[in-house]
Amino acid sequence: MPGSKGRQRKTIVGSYKYSRFNIIAEESDDLVLLYNTYTLRYRYVDRVDLDDIYEKKDIDLGDVPVIFAEEGFIVPDGVDEIRRLKADVRRHFERSDFMFISVFVTLACNYRCSYCFEKEHLSGTEHMTRETAEEVVDFINRRYKEHPFSKPLRIKWFGGEPLLNMDIIRFISGALKREGTDFAAKLYTNGRFLDRQNAKELKELGVTDEVVIPLDGTAPNYARLKGCSEADFYETLKNIKNSEDILKTVIHINVSEETKEDALPLLKQLRDEFHIGAKIVPINVAPQNTDCIRKDNSIGFDDFRTVSDRIRSGRAGGIRRAYGCEGRHPDYYVVGTKGELYVCEHLIGQKEHQKGNIRDLSGRIDRHGTIWDSDRIIDDCSGCPLLPVCLGRCTSQRYLDHIDCEKEKRIKAAKERIMALAREAAVRGSQPGARLMGQ
């Protein structure tokens, strides 16, 4: 492993301090693998060099390798790293100059998933009406007059099962197209009604972003957890196969205590039996309604990671800077079937979290000082070195469901990923200080 014995000396005015976002991923008697989660840089350094900077202030650049400053392992004494991170997040949202709206076109569903965060709010008949759909279009037009966004509108069609109310998807999409509003739509569906004809129509209606379909193990588990038949499972897989050349499909393999042993057989069935080429992502099922008991249903971080690594075939995966969930975006709106507004899909139907209605909202939903305020979240997590690549994870889980982030386990997992990425880079002949992955 390359070290930093050939020291580069340079006298620079000013003193430096050890970055709060450094992680020591690996160490031996002579070498240490140092990683910074803000700059996404890593470097094998001599232990004596690390001793010169480790958790120190007033570091003179004339006494340490300049590369430490260039790659962010030390920062000027006057830099407030937390304030700098907050400014980065604000700039990110300013550059992300688009409106993002999640529309619940129905709360009706053909399944009754045991883990569904909407379960206690689902209705067998509640659809968005044509009148409310017209108000959704008016709301979008109003926001565009208040703030002329520079980037296309993003829409997420949600339910219940959104394909049970295709008429409203057709109406809103058609109205926006007639008015010349540039948009791209995403769809969350259980896939049971996503036949080839519907897939073609959805693409014509602007569903050019991902279509996300969750699966819960092989046929027996799928049927039991969703309250359907095993025939529904096979029809859904046929639909995925028959539509993946039309729509950008992403399959979520839901991993819980009940399905963790089923995840790999499902993956094999998708790839080998149905020859499905869609992207497959493991998802940790978390308890998000009163019907879910954490110890009975959700899976711990270590168990989930084991399953996830197997699904990903041992690939280390990259590390990126994080800016938080959609709910923190200043122009993200979740619209219920009656036009009610929320900032998170998981809160649908919970009146205590409602933020008014599309009929009367003027301007943005105020997030200042709330649990959706990125500044507050950064302050609450300021002691964690993973903060720039995590940014508090799921806000609802953290503040409302009080689910522990298992910080120490995540730091350990990050160290192992950094070591794997560093070794992969060494095999490719990359320089030891190269980025593991761009921002």
Summarize the structure.
The chain is an alpha/beta fold and 439 residues long. The protein is built from 15 helices and 14 strands.
For the report, how would you describe the main beta sheet? 8 strands, mixed
> And the CATH topology of the largest domain?
TIM Barrel
Helix content: 25-40%
Secondary structure tally: strands: 14
The name of the CATH superfamily of the largest domain reads Aldolase class I
Tell me the series of helices and strands, N- to C-terminal. EEEEHEHEHEHEHEHEHHEHEHHEEHHHH
- Reported CATH architecture of the largest domain: Alpha-Beta Barrel
Which residues sit in consecutive blocks of at least 5 with pLDDT less than 50?
A: 1-12, 288-296, 434-439
Q: Strands across the major sheet, in which order?
A: 12-11-10-9-8-7-13-14
| Class per helix and strand makeup | alpha/beta
Average of the residue pLDDT scores: 88
For this structure, what is the CATH class of the largest domain? Alpha Beta
